[in-house]
Amino acid sequence: MNAKPTVHRASFVASATDVLDLPAPVFAEVAFAGKSNVGKSSLINALLGRRNLAHTSSTPGRTRLLNLFRAELEGGTLDIVDLPGYGYAKVSKAERRAWGPMIEAFLQKRPGLRCVIVIVDLRRGVQDEDRQLLEFLAEIGRDALIVATKTDKLSHSQVWPALQQVKRQAGGAIVLGFSAETNAGRDELWRAILERAGISG
To answer: What's the whole-model pTM score?
Structure first.
């Protein structure tokens, strides 16, 4: 398996507020979840080698829908689902309440979902909302992989201890470091995703 697959084409497929309104799954799916300010859209764009496929914004909380993207790779096709960011206080309480059932329904009901990438900011570690999501994924038997972003914001000597701290906070779960700025950790993340999706690189 290659470290990083060739992405022949990456495209937006659909958006929805309800998992039942998304196109039926045809390919293996990987979902990306995280708080609104952890760099989720930047990670997806960096992973796929596209600048503006997933919408990035200086205003956290812009991802308010279930957004489905499709990546045509060297060894197969992978669907990526960008879940609404959670934990952003400036979004209305009603909207925050609506996101919980939307995300939970997707995680519970989506048959093509192979793995959930839970994204945290390496500098801040696992927050209460992240812990609740990880506990929920464990309850429903979903495979979770934690990615700690913004490794470029720490010195080289600080990254490893910070990753170990996140691992302890997450109860010993697998934690990968990633930087959308430098692409550090991209190959390792691709390997983990392809393995879970059953795609050869």
So the answer is: 0.89
Measured from the Cβ of residue 104, the count of other Cβ atoms closer than 10 Å reads 14
Round the average pLDDT of the chain to a whole number and report it.
Answer: 88
Apex 91 CA angle, 22 and 47, nearest 5: 50
Closest CA to 118 of 136, 91, 102: 136
Tokens linked to 96: 């925050």
Pairing state between β 144-149 and 7-16: unpaired
CATH class of segment(s) 7-197: alpha beta
Domain ranges of the chain: 7-197
The string of DSSP codes covering 91-113 is S-HHHHHHHHHHHHHHHHH-TTE
**Residue 133 burial class via C-beta count within 10 angstroms: exposed 0-12, middle 13-18, buried 19 and up:** buried
Q: Write the pLDDT tens digit of every residue in 81-121.
A: 999 887 654 555 555 555 578 888 999 999 999 999 999 99
Question: Which residues, listed in sequence order, are joined to residue 72 by a DSSP beta bridge?
Answer: 9, 77
